[in-house]
Structure formats: structure tokens, C-alpha cells
Amino acid sequence: MARKTVLVIDDDPAICEIIAINLRAAGLIPLSAHDSLAANRLICEASPDLILLDWMLPGQPVLSFARELRNNHHTKNTGIIMLAASSEEADVIAGLEAGADDYVTKPFSPRELVARIRTLLRRRAPEWTNDVTVIGPLTLNLASRRVFVASEDTEEILDFGPTEFTLLHYLMNHPERVHSRAQLLDSVWGDQRYVDDRTVDVYIKHLRARLSKVNLSDLIQTVRGVGYRLTTETFHERRTPRQPITSDLPV
């Protein structure tokens, strides 16, 4: 399973580091920003899967920023957990009404915070709970570790190696999002620090070669100077594929 990215927005570097240590220990990828400007830049660059937002946000009222996040098409479906020193009911309600999914009071237990993060990620990320992902005629079944390509009356199985499968799974679950090589390394290869940017290029080439056998090599696009994107635009004019049977059991 590809690792999830959590953006911590807090003006205290020490708190950011403590949270980051616990996130890494839980298999998550931490990012940190100390104000709303830096946070917006990272959101555009990294598209985090979840945001931890401190109540004492420099430069902009936190409730205003939370509403902006919820109205932004990049983050409207991103989980938001608000961190605050106040446990007053009025503050909790204000935070939730501004767009936060959860509200955690300081001081907090790092283990409890990670548990809340995992719970919210499961609710917000369908790929954590669904075995099957469909992009156009391409169907990826996580439980059976198989990839199918459907045509009018046939279904062909494509053969992928373990890393190719994981990379394709990650891209299919984040369509139309541009991923830098560093982001793909973190999300797909994780702590295998012997790999580098060239590794990503090689595996993208392998994916395209296998997809070219069924005329889908243009599914993965190169964004010059940035990275790679899996596009769905090529299927907009095609017939909607059959809907797969999905599992309600967590992966």
C-alpha cells in the first residue's frame, strides 16, 4: 500500500518535529509548514492526503484558512484535523463548522493523534477500503494482484512485477495529479533509500511498455520539469466500463 502524506501546519518547529517523528514511525510521510503561505505552496506541490492545522496560524485567521481549504478543489476532499489548546465547546464547534473533520486538544497523546489520522484516512481514501480500482478499460484488483483490460466482449490479464503493480496502483488511485519523482519514491518505494530518481524513470518506462501492448501507453503522461501524471482524459469519449464488485473489508 502506498504511504500517505500528512501536512502539519504549525508555527512551532519543535511540535512539527515531534509529530513528524511519530508519523514516520506509523509509516506516514510528514510535511511541515509554519504559515498559510508555505502551506498553500506545499499543497500545490505535494497534494497531501491529510492536513493537521494548528489553531494559532500566523498570517491568517485559522477558521478563514480552514474554509479556504474546504472550498479549494485541491483540498475539498482532504481530511483536516484541527489542533488547539482550547477545549471550549464554542471553539470546537467553530472549528468543525469551518471545515475540520476532527478537533484535537493540546496537549495530546501522539499515539492517539496517529490513531485519529488513520481513522480519517480510511474514511477519506477509498483505495484503503476498496479492492478494485477502474480507470477507463483498465481494472486493478488489489486482492488478487491482477490487472485486467476490458474490450467489448473480452478481458485480458496484464502481467506486472510487484513494484510495477504498486506504482500503477498508486497512480490509478491518484488520477490527474502530477507527482514528482521524489513523491513517487516516498509513496511507492518508502524507506528503500538505495533507489533514486532514475529508478522512477525506469519503472515508468516499464509500465508504458506493458500498457502499450493494449494501446494504453498514453495513460501515463510526462509533465516536463515536474514528474508524471496518470490521465483519464483519453477515456472521456469512450463507453463507461462495467462497474466492478468491490469489497467493504479494509485492505
From TrEMBL:
UniProt GO BP: regulation of DNA-templated transcription
Residue ranges of every copy of the Response regulatory domain listed in the record: 5-121
Positions bearing 4-aspartylphosphate: D54
Name recorded for this polypeptide: Phosphate regulon transcriptional regulatory protein PhoB (SphR)
Record's keyword terms, sorted: DNA-binding, Phosphoprotein, Two-component regulatory system
GO molecular function, one term: transcription cis-regulatory region binding
UniProt xrefs under Gene3D superfamilies: 3.40.50.2300, 6.10.250.690, Winged helix-like DNA-binding domain superfamily/Winged helix DNA-binding domain
GO cellular component: cytosol; protein-DNA complex
Residues in OmpR/PhoB-type domain copies: 130-232
DNA-binding interval(s): 130-232
InterPro entries listed in its UniProt record: CheY-like_superfamily, OmpR/PhoB-type_DNA-bd, Sig_transdc_resp-reg_C-effctor, Sig_transdc_resp-reg_receiver, WalR-like, WH-like_DNA-bd_sf
